[in-house]
Design goal:
By secondary structure, this protein is mostly helical. Helices cover 75% and strands 0% of the residues.
Length: 393
């Protein structure tokens, strides 16, 4: 496996030591911006549950995740304790604040701010990485030269979209994001520069697994924050206490499904893999966005149910059942690709089927919003308990 060894004054982490994959405090500080970003995304979705706004929020969610996961790849290689690396993270943090603050009006009069902050973070971080890699093996430098070409190309489209209006902005940004999503799948192939290899993505498995687990915790924290803040502003009685309890129970089930089994097994797999870059690309870079999306939609559903426990319209039903469905789909795929099983976990597939069954009484309005939320939470718990029992055999 290709390995980058850091010379004495290198900005790279010194691999092979017991704490070489440690997540540093400045990385956690950087993550605080994304607590704000997730809050902005969930509130923007809650303000309008229509399909058009859901599509816009979905695009911004993937963009927010993409800029965060790319930064996590870079800090997997760079040593955040070096002053210049720390300064880079703080500059990215400032740009991330602008990005997050512009989310509610990203498709309004703050499109230019969202586009400029996003493209600046993606391109600027890559330029810094190329500067940090001076004197390193050519394969490592070429890898980020290819990445730079892809991100400059998509960045131009982000900026064009920021100056466009209405559906044209969505189209430009959708194309830009599609280019970025294709990049890792195509190994950032560039004419004349070739393509990268999995061996060039020699990540530290401990660091990558812990970083993504921490982001899931951030998203789950948003779910608790939403339900707690909404409950605090309501009269405390049985009519509000029961929806609050259901939201908490559902969040605990999501935590259990990811952290009790999936995260630990995947962590072990990537640490001992001969090609950790492959695991990092598929399981952590691509599939985790489904998990995060599921948590955010569940947070939106929790607030809807707390505010209106008796009734949910079609959009509300989609959020109440769609959140658990996205989460189960994401965790099922994540556990599938990080294990040797031929199919995703049966418990998760059955859970998705049960959620689909709940659609019928939901559309017939024979279940209240609270009843539907309780059904979704019950499905999550069933899957979690089933998986735990099955793995103990």
């Amino acid at each position: 496996m290709h390995t980058v060894f850091a010379p004495r004054r290198s900005l790279l982490r010194n691999r092979g030591q017991h704490d070489s994959g440690k997540v540093e405090m400045v990385e956690l500080f950087f993550d605080l911006v994304f607590v704000f970003a997730i809050t902005q995304l969930s509130h923007t979705l809650l303000a309008d549950l229509g399909p058009a706004n859901a599509l816009r929020v979905g695009l911004m969610l993937v963009a927010v995740w993409w800029v965060w996961i790319f930064t996590s790849w870079v800090t997997n290689w760079l040593d955040p304790n070096r002053p210049s690396v720390r300064a880079c993270l703080l500059v990215l943090m400032l740009a991330g604040l602008v990005l997050s603050a512009s989310v509610p009006q990203a498709f309004g009069d703050k499109g230019w701010a969202f586009a400029l902050a996003y493209a600046g973070m993606q391109v600027g971080r890559t330029l810094f990485m190329l500067w940090a890699l001076r004197g390193q093996p050519l394969d490592s430098v070429r890898n980020f030269q290819r990445i730079l070409v892809w991100l400059v190309s998509s960045g131009a489209l982000w900026l064009i979209g920021g100056g466009a209006e209405g559906p044209a902005r969505l189209a430009w940004w959708g194309l830009a994001l599609a280019i970025e999503l294709l990049g890792p799948a195509l190994f950032f192939w560039v004419p004349g520069l070739g393509r990268s290899r999995i061996q060039d993505w020699n990540v530290d498995g401990n660091h990558m697994a812990e970083r993504c687990a921490l982001f899931v915790i951030i998203a789950l924290g948003e779910s608790l924050l939403v339900s707690g803040a909404t409950f605090a502003g309501q009269p405390w009685n049985s009519a509000t206490a029961l929806p609050f309890l259901v939201s908490f129970v559902g969040t605990v089930a999501m935590w259990w499904l990811y952290f009790a089994v999936g995260a630990e097994h995947a962590h072990h797999r990537i640490v001992h893999a001969e090609d950790p870059g492959r695991q990092a690309r598929i399981a952590y870079t691509y599939l985790h966005v489904l998990i995060v999306a599921g948590v955010i939609v569940c947070a939106v559903a929790d607030e809807l149910v707390l505010a209106h426990p008796d009734h949910a319209d079609t959009a509300g039903i989609a959020a109440i059942l769609g959140g658990p469905a996205l989460y189960l789909l994401g965790t099922a795929l994540f556990k599938w690709v990080t294990n040797t099983r031929r199919l995703p976990p049966l418990s998760h597939l059955v859970g998705l089927g049960l959620l689909a069954v709940l659609v019928v009484p939901a559309l017939q309005h024979t279940l209240s919003a609270l009843g539907l939320a309780a059904g979704g939470a019950a499905v999550l718990w069933l899957v979690a308990v089933w998986e735990s029992i099955a793995l103990k055999k």
